[in-house]
């Protein structure tokens, strides 16, 4: 026997009580793991946003269009090195539940601007530029739907319709690209803007936003100011900001995810902290006599403190690790079902480490008061001897 | 032979002297607060206990015998006076040092055994050895040897609730002696046992005293149990009133 065995045996002396405490903690950490991972996945775009990339959107908000004529005018501004334009398509595959990230882009300039992030073979580049209905598909998306180069894929838009009244566009997969870094999301597809622009019923010669790369991040402020001044007082005023800010604004349309996560996780933790703390207090109070005996045997106050804290930390770690394990299962289920919305959702090492720190903190906070009470307990009082 | 103390004497109670005293209690007083009242439990107590002695403390409830036992065992501190055990004044030790002293110097035997219900007999006996620097193998050897000494070698893996009262008390005795302490403190060790089990326990304590030379201080209400001691000290209202030397 050693101290760990003693701690474990004390904790599990009432198996039902210990199990209920573990279930409580498991629930809190499962919520933490799932919501924390969702929040990170939603904000993933901000993490990979390049420092020297600016995004020009309609000043009203980014869902409003810009005239395509702006593209050439922005390209001509001093300090702008590469520029492209993008239009959100709002697509889904076969069923509206299978929503996809699909964008209409200018092939050549798009591959220039995102060439540092996306690994696109030379053959795929050529095909994408050449074939009017060609689409480049990220490997995550291709893998998810089992698409290969040469496949014909019908994608339906939930926003646009064609001149012929159909909302479905047919594409041919001309290449599958990968990310040059693991954090780059490849669960999306791009196709030719010209094909989109010629076939759509409304909004001709309009684009969603312009993305540009400056010669140096130091030029960002000046270039952004120049662009916005250029289109000031026009029917389509612009707001130019970094790609990171754009990603942030995109995420913000769903609400303050971080705040929601913090509130929900915080409420779960506070509630469970009180339940577990109270249960531990009760558990230690029931053992007053045993603590007195341990002290009479020579266990110092410090050892008693560590024994009780050991129990609270053990229960927190058992419940917490099980909770994070459950969160992983939930996350896999989320990825399988709504992967199109949250393609990068994983329980990251950062969340796991934060979870571990929270477990230790949780264990210390819930166990501290009973541990201090046990440490200060006078033997004669504990044994009922005065 | 009974020796009557003079309550008016300067010591407040005669202290039977011993040539090689293990415990020396000098002018010890103790009081407790009960609400707004101060209750004087022990008054100017003096006592010498020799190494290898077996002392029984008797007296009516509230006479101060359990309080005296607490003080000798280092689980409470007197208001005044000194308690020397093996030459060390335990009243001057800090709480931490006192815990270390108890671990190395005192073995407790309680009326209600006070075994850890979640631990086996073996683990209960091993418990005090966790405070020593002994290896796992050494701890196991000593715990098994001690359980064999009290006749429970075949009950090592049993939990306390799987043992009879007498067996539980024998486990408690094994736990008390496994660390080879200077002093065994027994508080009504037979108070919760039937007569047969009580005799077994008293015979075991007698063997520990006579064969292994353990010094024992035992509180008891039972005159039959007290007869196992070498001498019986009677307390009343916080003072010694009688000292009975018994034949070995």
Describe it.
The complex is a heterodimer of chains A (386) and B (248). In chain A, 54% of the residues lie in helices and 17% in strands. Chain A is α+β, with helices and mostly antiparallel strands and 386 residues long. Chain A folds into two domains: 3-44 and 256-382, no CATH class; 65-235, no CATH class. In chain A, the strands form two sheets. In chain A, strands 1, 3, 4, 5, 6, 7, 8, 9, 10, 12 and 13 form an eleven-stranded mixed beta sheet that branches. Chain A has a two-stranded antiparallel sheet with strand order 2-11. In chain A, helix 11 (257-286) runs parallel beside helix 14 (349-376) and helix 13 (301-338) packs antiparallel against helix 14 (349-376). The longest helix of chain A has 38 residues, at 301-338. Chain A starts with a helix and ends with a helix. By secondary structure, chain B is α/β, with parallel strands linked by helices. Chain B has a single domain (52-76, 95-245), classed as Rossmann fold (3-Layer(aba) Sandwich). In chain B, the strands form two sheets. Chain B has a seven-stranded mixed beta sheet with strand order 1-11-10-4-9-8-7. In chain B, strands 3-2-5-6 form a four-stranded antiparallel beta sheet, with helices on one face. In chain B, helix 4 (136-149) crosses helix 5 and helix 5 runs parallel beside helix 6. Chain B is globular, with a radius of gyration of 18 Å.
């Amino acid at each position: 026997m050693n101290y760990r065995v003693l701690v474990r045996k004390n904790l599990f002396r009432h198996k039902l009580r210990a199990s209920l405490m573990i279930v409580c903690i498991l629930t809190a950490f499962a919520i933490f793991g799932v919501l924390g991972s969702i929040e990170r996945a939603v904000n993933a775009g901000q993490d990979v946003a390049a420092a020297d990339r600016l995004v020009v959107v309609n000043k009203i908000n980014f869902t409003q269009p810009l005239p395509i004529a702006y593209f050439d005018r922005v390209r001509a501004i001093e300090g702008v090195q590469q520029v492209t334009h993008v239009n959100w398509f709002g697509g889904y595959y076969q069923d509206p539940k299978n929503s996809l990230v699909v964008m209409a882009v200018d092939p050549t300039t798009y591959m220039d601007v995102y060439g540092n992030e996306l690994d696109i073979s030379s053959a795929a580049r050529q095909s994408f530029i050449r074939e009017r209905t060609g689409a480049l598909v990220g490997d995550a998306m291709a893998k998810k739907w089992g698409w290969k180069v040469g496949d014909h894929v019908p994608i339906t838009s939930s926003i646009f319709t064609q001149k012929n009244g159909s909302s479905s566009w047919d594409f041919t997969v001309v290449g599958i690209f990968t990310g040059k870094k693991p954090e780059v999301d490849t669960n999306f597809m791009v196709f030719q803007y010209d094909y989109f622009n010629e076939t759509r019923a409304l909004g001709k010669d309009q684009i969603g936003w312009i993305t540009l790369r400056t010669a140096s991040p130091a030029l960002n402020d000046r270039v952004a100011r120049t662009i916005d001044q250029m289109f000031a007082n026009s029917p389509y005023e612009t707001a130019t900001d970094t790609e990171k800010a754009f990603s942030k604004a995109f995420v913000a349309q769903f609400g303050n995810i971080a705040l929601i996560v913090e509130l929900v996780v915080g409420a779960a933790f506070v509630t469970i902290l009180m339940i577990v703390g109270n249960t531990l207090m009760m558990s230690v109070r029931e053992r007053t006599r045993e603590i007195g005996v341990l002290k009479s045997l020579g266990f110092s106050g410090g050892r008693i403190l560590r024994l009780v804290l050991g129990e609270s930390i053990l229960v927190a770690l058992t419940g917490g690790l099980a909770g994070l394990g459950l969160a992983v299962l939930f996350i896999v289920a989320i990825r399988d079902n709504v992967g199109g919305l949250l393609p990068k959702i994983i329980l990251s090492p950062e969340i796991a480490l934060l979870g571990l720190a929270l477990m230790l903190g949780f264990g210390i906070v819930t166990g501290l008061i009973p541990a201090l009470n046990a440490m200060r307990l006078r033997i004669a009082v504990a044994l009922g001897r005065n | 032979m009974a020796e009557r103390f003079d309550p008016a004497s300067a010591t407040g109670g005669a202290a039977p002297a011993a040539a090689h005293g293990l415990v020396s209690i000098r002018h010890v007083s103790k009081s407790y607060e009960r609400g707004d009242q101060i209750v004087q439990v022990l008054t100017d107590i003096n006592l010498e206990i020799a190494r290898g002695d077996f002392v029984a403390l008797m007296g009516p409830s509230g006479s101060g015998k359990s309080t005296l036992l607490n003080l000798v065992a280092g689980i409470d501190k007197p208001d005044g006076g000194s308690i020397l055990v093996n030459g060390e004044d335990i009243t001057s030790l800090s709480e931490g040092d006192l815990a270390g002293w108890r671990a190395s110097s005192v073995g407790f035997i309680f009326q209600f055994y006070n075994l850890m219900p979640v631990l086996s007999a073996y683990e209960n006996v091993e418990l005090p050895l966790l405070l020593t620097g002994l290896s796992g193998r050494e701890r196991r050897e000593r715990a098994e040897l001690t359980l064999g000494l009290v006749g429970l070698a075949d009950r090592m893996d049993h939990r306390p609730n799987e043992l009879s009262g007498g067996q539980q008390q024998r486990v408690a005795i094994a736990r008390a002696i496994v660390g080879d302490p200077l002093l065994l403190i027994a508080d009504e060790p037979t108070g919760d046992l039937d007569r047969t089990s009580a005799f077994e326990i008293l015979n075991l304590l007698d063997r520990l005293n006579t064969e292994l030379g353990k010094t024992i201080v035992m509180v008891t209400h039972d005159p039959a149990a007290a007869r196992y001691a070498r001498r019986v000290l009677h307390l009343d209202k916080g003072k010694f009133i009688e000292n009975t030397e018994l034949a070995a």
